[in-house]
Write a structure and sequence with these properties.
The protein contains five helices and three strands. The protein is mostly helical and 112 residues long. β2 and β3 form a beta hairpin. GO terms for molecular function: DNA binding. It comes from Dyadobacter soli. InterPro entries: DNA-bd_dom_put_sf (IPR009061), HTH_17 (IPR041657), SinI_DNA-bd (IPR010093).
């Protein structure tokens, strides 16, 4: 029977050679096969909303959409941009904006 430490040593050598082989080939980028146009189901997944909610946003004109042959298509970039426009300011940002407004404007009433 072979020494268990020698078995472990052989396996470690094999693992090391595999790791070196993989690193020598370089990291291959994973191709991004994401289409720019999304169906309603894909838009629902991207936005993490219910399908009726998305339909409601479409009918009220609150979400960017394209309609062709009775089908709705959404641009991934436009949807992500639409999501970013809904960003709410933090308390610190609001306070900083208020300070800038107060400093820039003189609130004293003009004497009549």
């Amino acid at each position: 029977m072979e020494n268990p430490f020698s078995i472990i040593d052989k396996r470690l050598d094999r693992i090391e050679s595999l790791v070196l082989e993989l690193t020598s080939k370089g990291a291959q980028p994973i191709p991004q096969n994401t289409p720019d146009l999304l169906s309603i189901d894909e838009a629902v997944l991207l936005l993490n909303l219910a399908k009726p909610t998305v339909y409601n946003l479409v009918s009220s004109g609150k979400i960017p959409v394209m309609k062709k042959s009775k089908r709705l298509y959404f641009s991934r970039d436009e949807l992500l941009k639409w999501l970013r426009t809904g960003r709410r300011k933090t308390v610190e940002e609001i306070e900083e904006e208020a300070r800038g407004y107060v400093v820039g404007n003189d609130y004293r009433r003009a004497k009549k």
